């Protein structure tokens, strides 16, 4: 068996990083050159953000594949860019805060409704997760819509 020395390992790592950089640049160019309306691209970005917040590994990929197959006119570049940005490493602190957010929401809801709130940990986690995921999706839609509209205006004026 042939051994790998440090120089070969370094060269392999640099080639891998360069390939990923070129692919990311190609996706960025595809996303910015798309002729789809800004609202459509922002919807795709928000959908990618919402799907990628699912904490179960590979379930988000299966749902993303289903969405891309079902909605074939949905722009792919913003969808997959949002999935790449909102990965599980980025979401880990938010996953950790879901019980606290869910507990606060249930406490607020129980103060304003006659229904007594359950003190179950799973319910707190689910309510917190739904609130965080929907908040991220809404925020990403607003940011992406503003950004894509600004990009289209800048492209039109030049």
Main attributes?
about 160 residues; mainly alpha; 7 helices; about 0% strand
Distance between the first and last residues' Cα: 59 Å
How helix-rich are the residues, as a percent range?
Answer: over 70%
The profile of the biggest β sheet is:
none
Let me know the number of strands: 0
Order of helices and strands: HHHHHHH
Q: Beta-strand percentage?
A: under 5%
Provide the number of structural domains: 1
Structural class based on helices, strands and sheet pairing = mainly alpha
- Catalogue the unreliable spans: none
Average of per-residue pLDDT values: 85
Globular, elongated, flat, extended or rod-shaped: what is the shape? globular
How many H/I helical runs?
Answer: 7
CA radius of gyration: 20 Å
């Amino acid at each position: 068996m042939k051994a790998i020395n440090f120089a070969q390992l370094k060269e392999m790592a640099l080639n891998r990083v360069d390939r990923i950089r070129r692919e990311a640049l190609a996706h960025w160019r595809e996303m910015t050159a798309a002729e789809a309306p800004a609202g459509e691209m922002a919807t795709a970005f928000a959908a990618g953000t919402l799907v990628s917040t699912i904490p179960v590994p590979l379930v988000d990929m299966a749902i993303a594949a289903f969405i891309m197959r079902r909605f074939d006119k949905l722009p792919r570049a913003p969808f997959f860019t949002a999935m790449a940005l909102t990965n599980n490493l980025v979401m880990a602190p938010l996953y950790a805060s879901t019980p606290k957010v869910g507990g606060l929401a249930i406490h607020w809801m129980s103060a304003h409704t006659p229904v007594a709130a359950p003190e179950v940990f799973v319910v707190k986690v689910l309510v917190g997760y739904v609130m965080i995921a929907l908040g991220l999706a809404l925020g990403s839609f607003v940011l992406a819509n503003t950004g894509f509209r600004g990009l289209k205006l800048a492209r039109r004026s030049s």
